[in-house]
Design brief:
By secondary structure, the protein is α+β, with helices and mostly antiparallel strands. The chain has 3 helices and 6 strands. A 3-stranded antiparallel sheet has the order 1-2-3, with no helix packed on it. Strands 4-5-6 form a 3-stranded mixed sheet, with helices on one face. The chain is globular and about 50 Å long. About 15% of the residues are buried.
Length: about 150
């Protein structure tokens, strides 16, 4: 059972807070973060949802992709690499017939376009995966995370 106490700020920690509000009488919720941006979350139609938002587990993969993307772009910009286009495709494998059903394997494929040195791209992704990305650090204890990339 989880402790129902509020999170207290510690001197060496940053507090992050989001708010979740139920939108309908099923599983559609609206989440708002510190920047005020609203995200829709919903369940599948199999459980009575309306596909009106992302699934919570999809959002974990989106968060991983977003966290790593920011790292990689920052590193490549510092190395004066020219990025014309950037996207990531993420695939996660979860345990079947398990509750909970955590991710056990996650693969990210980075698609980049521009005047880019492949070794600098590889190093930027390695730095994200091994040093900078907090989402990777959060998921790595339960999931094997690997990547590949293509430069167009």
């Amino acid at each position: 059972m989880l402790d129902s106490q509020t999170v207290e700020s510690a001197p060496l920690m940053n507090t992050m807070k989001v708010e979740l509000v139920r939108v309908d009488d099923a599983f559609h919720f609206e989440a708002t973060g510190v920047a005020g941006v609203k995200l829709d979350i919903d369940g599948s139609t199999d459980i009575g949802g309306h596909n009106a938002g992302a699934r919570p587990m999809e959002m974990l993969l989106m968060g991983l992709a977003g966290c790593s993307a920011i790292d990689v772009v920052l590193v490549l910009q510092k190395q004066r690499q020219v990025i014309e286009d950037f996207r990531i495709s993420v695939e996660g494998l979860r345990e079947k017939n398990a509750t909970p059903a955590p991710f056990r394997k996650i693969h990210l494929h980075y698609f980049l376009k521009g005047n880019l040195d492949p070794e600098k791209v590889r190093r930027a992704i390695d730095l994200s995966m091994d040093k900078y990305c907090s989402a990777t650090a959060q998921l790595r204890p339960t999931a094997h995370i690997d990547y590949s990339f293509t430069i167009e």
